[in-house]
Each structure stands twice: as C-alpha cells, then as structure tokens.
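note to self: dont lose this again. the chain is below, predicted strucutre after it. 140 aa total, dont forget to put it in the shared folder this time
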Amino acid sequence: MFESTKLLRTHGIPVTAQRLAVLRAIREQPHGTAEAIAEEVRSKIGSISKQSIYNTLGSFVEKGLLRRIQPAGSPALYEGRVGDNHHHLICRACGKTVDVDCAVGKKPCLTAANDAGFVIDEAEVIYWGTCPACLVTTTK
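---
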C-alpha cells in the first residue's frame, strides 16, 4: 500500500481509496479491461462508477503510471509495466495476453525500414496465436 501511495504522490496525483484500489486491481490482473478492473475494484471497496474508473485509468496513462494497449477488435487493456519497449502475445481463442520483450538487441523495433522523417520513440507489436491451454483444449 505504501508503495502505491508514494507512486501517486510522486506523480502529483491525490491519494484516494479508489485510486489505490485501481492500482491494486492492475497488479492483480495485468492486461485487464476497464470493465474487469471496475469489477475487481468493486469487489474490494464497494461502489465506484464506471466513469470514475475511466477517469482514473486515463489519468494514470497520461501521467505514465499505466500503459494502454488497444488490440484490434478488442477493448483497451491496461497494464502497469511502463517505461520499456515490450510487446504482447494474445491468444485468439481466449484472449489471454502476456508480455514479451523485444526479440533482439536494444530496441530493435524502433528502427523502421523507412521512417518517413519521423523520430520514432515507441513501437507497438502484437503477436497473435493460440496459448498452450487453448491448444490442449482444441486438440482433445
């Protein structure tokens, strides 16, 4: 709890029970949707509006406490792993999402074949496939 309180204060965010609960929910379910995070928060502290969840998540993303990813055809996912250039594996069958580091070298994904004059500072790569649990289910 102290770590979360310090994190919020360091980023100039007022500490509230709701904000602390959102941080806890993210730790417990990395890559959670806003809806899943809201359910987790409600299970711990009771009532909180969907708008409060969205406002808190938006604020945390803006301040750099969370990262928002938007896989094609899926709702936005939120994670606490920030400050590096990692990517994601997503199961097409169940939606399980896991982190994966860049394949080789230091930020190799930031070197595009043609940067069109852009200064590239981030790359978002999503690998799609089938997770081990779903492979077992589909082969039975």
